[in-house]
Design brief:
The protein is built from 15 helices and eight strands.
Length: 337
């Protein structure tokens, strides 16, 4: 039983509810607070790598401090940290006033800033430039996050805390994407750990949240040390349903008996679950000790938990406040088995 938690505070709450680790730390949530968003915006609108690196250097200490706090809260337990996932324009200013202010802060002409914001807009952002695609386009982002995780781990370890970092790459569709990002992390790990004269064991794994990733799990498992099923995106992409908009008509589908449940709440075991099953089987065949978990919203839903138990997943991960219900469901699933 793990928790989805993004801050040291949430991690402490999760642990007090009985979480045995963090299954998903969404690092983007750390970028919204206070002056962090300004540094994030500076990074996004930078037109060359040097400008991005300057802004990333401002984000590094903030992210490192958060990770250290999370490791401390989860002393002795595994912490899965996911690299930046959402499309970059989610971080940009909304509306004229905010844009004006940002242009002034960054000492840019407003017209130039507007042009950059416009160029980042996507028709279909959920299928766009997000997840590992960002880290592939801008490896310096992955590098900064990898550095923040590992430096935080070393600092925590030096204070006597037992750290078990698991670095997770989002929205992988092919093993080559995974390998590309893994190489960036391993390179930064060599430099950070070498420079600090420390050794730390850590895992590098992936979200399985696209049908292609599930179907090619045997290839991905050759490189990835764990899979975490992101069943929010996996439901979205398998069923071709927008997770942001489908609520407009899903209730009528349920009223008419076309769907028994909202598939974003209760796992569609016949379709999405089948893909999960394929990935579990193929992943384990290639790497018998592969760690398998689920971190989509379904990880806190009793019937979906029962399904995960039957597939033999190692853990489910959900929001801290859903942990008590999820623990009960997991216990029932174990007793029924
Ligand atoms: C998922 O897609 O299931 C997931 C956990 O990631 P997110 O909800 O952040 O896209
Ligand atoms: Mg996702």
């Amino acid at each position: 039983m793990r928790a989805n938690a993004d801050t040291p505070r949430d991690a402490r709450i999760a642990r007090s509810f009985g979480a045995e680790g963090i299954g998903l730390c969404r690092t983007e949530h750390m970028f919204f607070e206070g002056d962090r968003i300004t540094a994030m915006r500076e990074m996004i609108v930078a037109r060359e790598e040097g400008g991005r690196r300057r802004a990333l250097n401002k984000l590094l200490p903030m992210q490192r401090a958060d990770f250290e706090g999370i490791f401390e809260a989860m002393d002795g337990l595994p912490v899965t940290i996911r690299l930046l996932d959402p499309p970059l324009h989610e971080f940009l200013p909304h509306g004229g006033e905010e844009t004006k202010l940002l242009a002034r802060t960054l000492d840019m002409a407003r017209a130039d800033l507007n042009r950059i914001i416009e160029s980042l807009r996507e028709t279909n952002p959920m299928l766009g430039h997000r997840g590992c695609r960002l880290g592939i386009s801008y490896p310096e982002i992955t590098e900064m996050q990898g550095r923040a995780i590992l430096e935080a781990a070393v600092r925590a370890m030096r204070r006597g805390i037992v750290v078990k970092p698991e670095i997770m790459i989002p929205l992988v569709s092919t093993v080559k994407e995974f390998d590309n990002q893994r190489a960036v992390i391993e390179d930064v790990a060599d430099r950070v750990l070498g420079g600090m004269g420390e050794k730390i064991s850590y895992l590098i794994g992936t979200m399985i949240e696209l049908p292609r990733a599930a179907l090619t799990a045997a290839q991905i498992a050759q490189s990835a040390e764990f899979f975490s099923f992101g069943t929010n995106d996996l439901t979205q992409t398998t069923m071709g349903l927008s997770r942001d908009d489908a609520g407009r008509f899903l209730p009528s589908y349920i009223d008419r008996g076309i769907l028994a449940d909202d598939p974003f709440q209760v796992l569609d075991t016949e379709g999405v679950g089948r893909l999960v099953g394929i990935a579990v089987e193929d992943g384990r065949r290639v790497r018998p000790n592969i760690k398998l978990g689920i971190c989509g919203e379904h990880g806190g839903e009793p019937r979906s938990i029962s399904f995960c138990h039957k597939l033999g997943l190692d853990y489910v991960s959900c929001s801290p406040f859903r942990i008590p219900i999820a623990r009960l469901a997991a216990a029932h699933a174990a007793l029924d088995a």
